[in-house]
Design goal:
By secondary structure, the chain is mostly helical. It is 53% helix and 5% strand. The chain has helices at residues 7-28, 39-48, 52-63, 74-80, 93-101, 124-127, 129-142, 146-149, and strands at residues 87-90, 113-116. Helix 5 (93-101) links the parallel strand 1 and strand 2 (113-116). Helix 1 packs across helix 2 (39-48) and helix 1 crosses helix 3 (52-63). It starts with 6 loop residues before the first helix and ends in a 6-residue tail after the last helix.
């Protein structure tokens, strides 16, 4: 979900007040109806087992702390400085279109790719594991030249 300027302070206040209960509310709505059985329950258990202060601190770290890049324009500036290709999967058409605008012409633009998976919730790798593996494998195989090997520890 894209966070707007007015959503962020409201969400942070809710996480500070409700911690794990508030995070569980987010997680409960983060799945498609046809998600694999048990996936929602597993994530709800994880959230409700996380200390309240950790939930609030994590959210602040993503959206409000100095250097946070979860909200625009901070994320736009950060993404424009990419120095290597990136593979991104977005679940909404608008978010995918926006992400494509961040590729620009810098060193990270060449080879970058943005996918739109409208049939996916927040946990795409768990909802569509085989599809995710195929996507990553295909993308990395196309980027396995000397320029990219320095990033994967093979030389």
């Amino acid at each position: 979900m894209r966070r707007t300027g007015t959503d962020i302070p409201r969400c942070l206040a809710a996480y500070r007040a409700g911690g794990a209960r508030e995070a569980a509310r987010f997680v409960a709505g983060a799945f498609r109806p046809d998600s694999p059985r048990g996936l929602r329950t597993a994530h709800l258990r994880t959230m409700t087992g996380t200390p309240d202060h950790v939930i609030a601190q994590s959210y602040a770290g993503m959206y409000t702390d100095p250097g946070a890049v979860g909200a625009r324009p901070h994320s736009e500036a950060y993404l424009a400085r990419r120095t290597c290709p990136a593979l991104t999967v977005r679940t909404t058409r608008g978010a995918a279109a926006w992400e494509r605008t961040t590729l620009g012409t810098g060193p990270g633009a060449t080879g970058s790719r943005v996918e739109h998976w409208p049939d996916t919730g927040h946990y795409l790798h768990e909802e569509h594991p085989e599809r995710t593996v195929r996507l990553i494998r295909g993308w990395t195989e196309r980027h396995d030249g000397p320029t990219y090997r320095q990033h994967d520890g093979r030389g």
